[in-house]
Specification:
The protein has about 140 residues and is an alpha/beta fold. About 35% of the residues lie in helices and about 15% in strands. Helix 4 links the parallel strand 6 and strand 7. Helix 3 runs parallel beside helix 4. The chain is globular, with a radius of gyration of 14 Å. InterPro entries: CoA-bd (IPR003781), NAD(P)-bd_dom_sf (IPR036291).
């Protein structure tokens, strides 16, 4: 699904369509932005699967943490990958997502995070890409 992000209907469609999100760069620390975004999304009814190699096997907000996207069971049905990592890490994350997540529909990078080359690769595969935005800020307008 390609969404025109020049108008608000694109974000609204993502907010309504997506149900399962992999959060790359999740943290068990409540003070970290990724923890707050995970908590918000869960409160809105989304399943958020944490991804962080340093906490593999632990639990964050009731969900098992995976070391990588490729470790998440396929049956989890991840539709969106939300990236809380530096821009330099985005390319590898996007490539892993494209090769291992059969239900992937959206790549989302957090505020200040961009990789236009990785975004182009994802878009060429029919994946919607949102960069430099936060679903905790964007989604409430449409829920």
């Amino acid at each position: 699904m390609q969404i025109d992000l020049d108008d608000d209907t694109g974000i609204a469609n993502i907010a309504r369509m997506v149900k399962v999100i992999a959060m790359v760069g999740s943290s068990p620390k409540e003070a970290r932005p990724s923890w707050g975004v995970t908590r918000f999304l869960q409160a809105q009814g989304y399943r958020v699967i944490p991804v962080n190699p340093g906490h593999d096997g632990a639990m964050i907000l009731g969900e098992r943490v995976y070391a990588s996207l490729s470790d998440i069971p396929r049956e989890a049905g991840v539709q969106m990958v939300d990236i809380f990592r530096r821009s330099e890490a985005v390319g590898d994350i996007v490539d892993e997502a494209l090769s291992t997540l059969p239900d992937l529909q959206v790549i989302w990078t957090q505020l200040g995070v961009r990789d236009d080359a990785a975004a182009a690769r994802a878009r060429a595969r029919g994946i919607t890409v949102v960069q430099d935005r936060c679903p905790k800020i964007e989604f409430p307008r449409y829920l």
